[in-house]
Write a structure and sequence with these properties.
Shape: globular
Radius of gyration: 19 Å
Strand content: under 5%
Order of helices and strands: HHHHEHHE
Number of strands: 2
Length: about 170
């Protein structure tokens, strides 16, 4: 009886892995495209970043170009490698895992804190930017969290992302 369950469970892992990597790619690409959009002067949803961030980077929008490119690159890289069945080096796999864990911790913690501020549980000294806090509670930090969780799920299964020995 145990043997009949194993064959049906084994093929599902690569499919779940692929879908997790698709979700990670979409979430990360969305995040990155907004960075690129704002870098070239776009203003839609910019108020959801918070006044402090907007004022700090108002004269340095060009910094969002490399940030956006890196976000998009790291968002799609695991999916592209998996789709092509390409092995990844141990170093790249570690970098992807570190990125995934960082996204989960950063996105999760900031989502919770933003919701606690909006609920009045945490009351920042000097007040807070309501639109920015809504953006962090409901858009940007949950998107980081989704990206990270999906990436963790996609990296758990080594089948499509084979580890190869480093050749250096």
């Amino acid at each position: 009886m145990g043997q009949s369950a194993a064959p049906s469970a084994a093929p599902a892992a690569p499919r779940r892995t692929r879908w997790a990597l698709v979700v990670a790619a979409v979430a990360g690409t969305g995040h990155g495209l907004f960075s690129l959009y704002w870098a070239v002067g776009g203003t839609w949803l910019v108020e959801t970043l918070g006044e402090d961030i907007v004022e700090t980077f108002a004269d340095q929008l060009w910094l969002l170009l490399p940030v956006g490119v890196l976000k998009v690159g790291f968002a799609v890289l695991p999916l592209l490698l998996a789709e092509r069945g390409r092995p990844i080096s141990r170093v790249l796999r570690i970098v992807l895992w570190l990125g995934a864990v960082t996204l989960v911790v950063w996105g999760g913690l900031n989502t919770v804190v933003a919701h606690l501020v909006l609920a009045g549980v945490i009351q920042p000294t000097g007040g807070y930017d309501h639109q920015g806090m809504i953006g962090h509670a409901w858009i940007w930090d949950p998107l980081f969290l989704l990206w990270g969780v999906a990436l963790v799920m996609g990296l758990r299964h080594p089948q499509p992302l084979r580890i190869t020995p480093d050749r250096q």
